[in-house]
Amino acid sequence: MSVFTTVLARDLRLALRQSADSLTVIAFFAIATVLFPFGIGPEANILARIAPGVVWVTALLAALLSLDRIFTVDFEDGTLDQLILSGAPLPVVVLAKVTAHWLTTGVPLIIMSPVLAVTLHLPAEGYVPLMLALLLGTPTVSLVGAVGAALVLGTRRGGVLLSLLVLPLYIPVLIFGTAVIEGAITGVPVTPLILAGFAILALTLCPWAASAALRQAAE
Amino acid sequence: MSVFTTVLARDLRLALRQSADSLTVIAFFAIATVLFPFGIGPEANILARIAPGVVWVTALLAALLSLDRIFTVDFEDGTLDQLILSGAPLPVVVLAKVTAHWLTTGVPLIIMSPVLAVTLHLPAEGYVPLMLALLLGTPTVSLVGAVGAALVLGTRRGGVLLSLLVLPLYIPVLIFGTAVIEGAITGVPVTPLILAGFAILALTLCPWAASAALRQAAE
Amino acid sequence: MHRFANPTQFMRIANAIFPWVAGLAVILFVIGLPIALVTSPPDYQQGETVRIMYIHVPSAWLALMVYGTMAGGSAAFLIWRHPIANLTAKAAAPMGAVFTGLALVTGMLWGQPMWGTFWVWDARLTSFLILFFLYLGYLALGDAFEDSERGDKAAAILCLVGSINIPIIHFSVTWWNTLHQPSIMKLGGDGVKSSVDGSILLPLFVMLGAFTMYFFAVLILRLRSELLAAKIRNARLSQAAVGDALGQAAE
Amino acid sequence: MAEYFNMGGYAAWIWPCYGLVTLGLVGVLVTTLRGLNARTREFEALKSARRGDGA
Amino acid sequence: MVRLMVEKTFTAQTFSGANLSCRRGGRLVFAGLHFAVPPGGALILRGHNGSGKTTLLRLMAGLTPSSAGHLAWDGQAIDDPDAHAARLRFVTHLDAVKPALTVAENLSFWMSLWAGKTNESALQKSLQAFDLKRFETFPARLLSAGQRHRLALSRLLVAPAPLWLLDEPGNALDDASLAALARAIADHRASGGQVVIASHGSAFVDDGMTLDVGAFTPTTAAHWSEEE
Amino acid sequence: MVRLMVEKTFTAQTFSGANLSCRRGGRLVFAGLHFAVPPGGALILRGHNGSGKTTLLRLMAGLTPSSAGHLAWDGQAIDDPDAHAARLRFVTHLDAVKPALTVAENLSFWMSLWAGKTNESALQKSLQAFDLKRFETFPARLLSAGQRHRLALSRLLVAPAPLWLLDEPGNALDDASLAALARAIADHRASGGQVVIASHGSAFVDDGMTLDVGAFTPTTAAHWSEEE
Ligand code: HEM
Ligand SMILES: Nc1ncnc2c1ncn2[C@@H]1O[C@H](COP(=O)(O)OP(=O)(O)OP(=O)(O)O)[C@@H](O)[C@H]1O
Ligand SMILES: Nc1ncnc2c1ncn2[C@@H]1O[C@H](COP(=O)(O)OP(=O)(O)OP(=O)(O)O)[C@@H](O)[C@H]1O
Ligand SMILES: [Mg+2]
Ligand SMILES: [Mg+2]
After folding, report:
1. How do residues C205-247 score in pLDDT, each as one tens digit?
2. Residue A70 has what DSSP assignment?
3. According to the model, what pLDDT value does residue C149 have?
């Protein structure tokens, strides 16, 4: 087995054994989204207006919450030292871990999103673009988040610091992610390809940046 | 020194040594709030309409993120065992830790809130009620959050699970917190006393619930 | 380049230019402030508020320049492990955050009389706000480690990642904003640009120079301070090491 | 003079701007100098303490 | 190294346990275990890895409940865990050291919690007992594995308590520190305190009773009780 | 207990370091340290707490950079840390054991990462070497401190590598496990491997060289270089 599949298989198996973990991510996504009608009031037209933004923002926060610990456990129990010493290319290991993370949290989130869109009265034209935008945007979110998670290894209060570091970097994804949905609703289509472009850019840069940060953390 | 002041003094000292920690909570609050205009668009009237809800929801999420680790570190490094074995009344210890947490994160959040209200174009009448509502509401948030944090000790991915447990409990605070602000704006005042009532209720119940959960975790 | 890797040598050069830079900063402020505040005429469109521009624009300019300095320093630190490059980035960061904050605050104070609101989600304002967050993130990360050396490298990586993202953010925000741009923002900088003439350019450039010289002067002072801090850390910790060794030998 | 300080009605914006910028720049300068002085003193103290040790 | 002066002589009381069993993770770790430690006595827990030494110590501390049997102090069954907690000190693998606080701050926090106030001279004595005096003003994060463990051990001395429970206290200690620990234990026993030590290596005492925890592992049948 | 059959004899190569210094947290921990371990050799690191044994091992593994000096393999300076990593196994205080995976799954993950594939018979041998066979299908969270550490040690055997770096490998081990470890080390050396062990207690070998890391703590004068 290649390094990628070995690490991916292990992380998926761990996630499966602890399936509560990815369920809680989805639960957070659901509950945080549902908070908005309580905070803003139940008017359908306002909720519909803000729905794409709210879904995207909560998806970003949910991803962030779960990314927080993507390397922490490995760091604290010594696995990270051993992975670095395995001689396997570290960017590949990072990519495998990010892939596992995306499969166990990003994908369920995408599947879940139409349900939440219903509660926020998103117009029907928005559903497919919503899922498409999440499908193309969440890989970038996971990749950029992994760099942040690697950077905050060994700090106290990793989660909050992580948000400070990566949320500003998520803004382009957020802008185009919501634009795709709103474009479909207002009838002025916006191409989702730019999200794919971001993903490719992140794919070429983030594994390296994250592994530099990981090596640094193990020093 | 009493148990309360001893624990409070230590936690405040730790927070001061690591002052970046409470700063990052505020930073998270700011950034998460600012995400909404990106997701929703820059129109001032829509932003003003959703401002109270958005500020409250992000304040809740910020508190949640920082509460996540209120007992974790003590649990993981063995301090919790020692605190339980100290023979000091555990609810008092919990109350001291929650007070320290509120002073270092809740208070800065309240001070920060008007600035964010500006960026969301909250009408001027809303400022004082906003701060008042946060002042009366955040103690409840900290106290309830502490119970959740104690309950999830020892689980992995505590943060996400915590949200799941605690966010539904926050909904009353959220509803009345935003009602106070919106009431002031629309000229139909809503008394903030109900928030104080929640706080008193939380004060009498939460320390006991949290310490029962902590004993449970140490087993 | 390698000549500067040696802190002593680098500081010798820095100390040599310090009086010039500091002197120039003082002179330019002494010349620039009276022009900006008194002698320059009010703008025909913006009236007296144009005087805010003479500090707003230099602050904004420096905020960007400092980030460039930090990115360069971080890259040099990560690639060649130059300690001075790292210290430069570290010393510059708080100043960059302050300049960004000042540009934001002066911009907001300008926006109220001009646009009737403290804040609009205009592209340039918005991307500046994000720049401010990037600065805060850098400072927070550098500060978050028990071991200060670890914070240095992590912050350097973050700085580089951020510098790749700044153009992306800028482009996205511009695009986002032009999509549904409220009308009040049309008043922005372009209105001024058309009326730019010597009477405005002169104080602007003098103040730009003054701010830049101020930055370099204070940067040198902060570098000195950072170097001393490193020495003190070494000294303190090594004293303890020696105590440890001696104590053990005595047993 | 009063008219000058009034800044054509924009005094409430212009003077706070200049005030805040002054505060910011002077603040950075002062904290820098104070840090530098404190560290210089600390370093000298450490150096002389060590000379004492060695003797 | 300064010899610790023991100020308080504890009122003599026997700590005992009768017919103790404990389950962890659904499995019975030991059953039918008896022990008694008289004042001034020492009990050494031995047993192969996984025999239940750590589990027994946590049970003795009142942290983990026993599934059968009971603990007694002076012959009285212990029913108030807080009162029991107040007369013991527990040193485990987890050292409860805050990296951001200095060595002295770490110690004085526990002193003020246990004794209600901080006492500078007792603090100094505890620091000296494990040769930590010169690290007094250092943040604890700068300590090596053994130094941190010494800081955890010095907590034993900041406020007197008759019963010490020590889980592998010799881990990561160099020879000088091992000697200091043996001395601290001897002093404690001389003043009437008792000590329970789980250790694979040095026992730190010459005259203690030894309890082989492994001997109380239930037989296979009892072990894998169906009702788990 | 099954005696481990060593399948591979390593090509003989000396691992050495010259003039090594290392700083941690801004402080020079040791300076001017030299060592050399020939094939089949053993190096025992000694030194008081905080002398830098753990630091030196991490440096030998290539995790922590040295601030001066260099490491060499077969006389060649080591410049590719990944190539160096591939020829060593490092066992530390942190055991890299995943509580949710079974003992066998934990081992086979590392085997497949290091060897590119899993080999059932090598897996079984590694399990037997540290008497973990009967825990094979247990989730690792059920293991006691010593059992977990044995699992970490058994990783040494799943895929051969010539250089073993062991940080206090005897911690928490009972006597039978200590003997198993000594045997594993002897077998490894017999097949030409070399081993570096930091330990306060048992050295596990009779004929190793000893390096007192504490002797390389810099003197005060060396510390205070003006030009820093
Ligand atoms: C919070 C509010 C504001 C922020 C964050 C802000 C930020 C900036 C930034 C980033 C620049 C660019 C500097 C450069 O490219 O070198 C700039 C330049 C400028 N700003 Fe602002 N600004 C704000 C408000 C205003 C207001 C209200 C006005 C005037 C009505 C204004 C007028 C200008 C002018 C004239 C320039 C220079 C000309 C140019 O580069 O186009 N700004 N500001
Ligand atoms: N991450 C770190 N940051 C700062 N200082 C460190 C760090 N790691 C180790 N040190 C310092 O380096 C010195 C050597 O530590 P090390 O852990 O190598 O000692 P050791 O010989 O293994 O001690 P022990 O026997 O207690 O395990 C210690 O004084 C410690 O303060
Ligand atoms: N939290 C727990 N959940 C489930 N099982 C546990 C738990 N803690 C301990 N055990 C089980 O209890 C048994 C006894 O563990 P314990 O840690 O007490 O052993 P020990 O004698 O201290 O061993 P060692 O010498 O290795 O430290 C072990 O087999 C372990 O599987
Ligand atoms: Mg144990
Ligand atoms: Mg060590």
Report:
1. 999 999 999 999 999 999 999 988 888 877 776 665 544 444 4
2. T
3. 73
Contact E23, E45 (CB under 8 A): no
Distance of CA C23 from the midpoint of ligand 1 (Å): 28
Distance, in angstroms, between C75 CA and closest chain D CA? Answer: 25
Which chains touch D (3+ CB pairs under 8 A)? C, F
Contact (CB, 8 A) for A138 and A63? yes
- Confidence band (pLDDT; 50, 70, 90) for F222? very low
Residues 138-197 of A with CB under 8 A from B: 156-157, 159-161, 163-164, 167-168, 170-171, 174-175, 178, 182
Question: pLDDT per residue over A104-119, tens digit each?
Answer: 989 999 999 999 999 9
Structural contact between residues A199 and C195, judged by C-beta atoms closer than 8 angstroms:
no
Q: Which residues of E138-158 are buried (b: 16+ CB within 10 A; e: fewer)?
A: bbbebbbbbbbbbbbbbbbbb
Facing residue for E99 by CB, picked from C146, C237, C243? C146
Return the structure tokens found at A45: 């037209």
Q: Domain coordinates of chain A in residue numbers?
A: 2-218
- Give the integer Cα–Cα distance in Å for D48 and A96: 56
For residues A158 and B116, give the distance between their C-alpha atoms in angstroms, rounded to a whole number. 24
**B212 φ/ψ angles, rounded to the nearest 5 degrees:** -60, -45
| Tens-place pLDDT, residues F41-86 | 999 999 998 899 999 999 999 999 888 899 999 889 998 888 999 8
Q: Taking the domains of chain D in order of start, what are their residue ranges? A: 13-50
Spans in chain B with pLDDT lower than 50 = none
Q: The sheet that has E42-46: what strands, in order across it?
A: E88-91, E163-167, E194-198, E42-46, E209-212
Q: Are F91 and F167 in contact (CB under 8 A)?
A: yes
The reply to whether ipTM tops 0.95 is no
Looking at residue C246, its pLDDT comes to: 42
C237 CB within 8 Å of a chain E CB: yes
Mutation choice for ligand 2 from F21, F24, F91, CB with most ligand atoms inside 8 A: F24
Sheet arrangement for strand F76-77: F27-37, F15-24, F68-73, F76-77
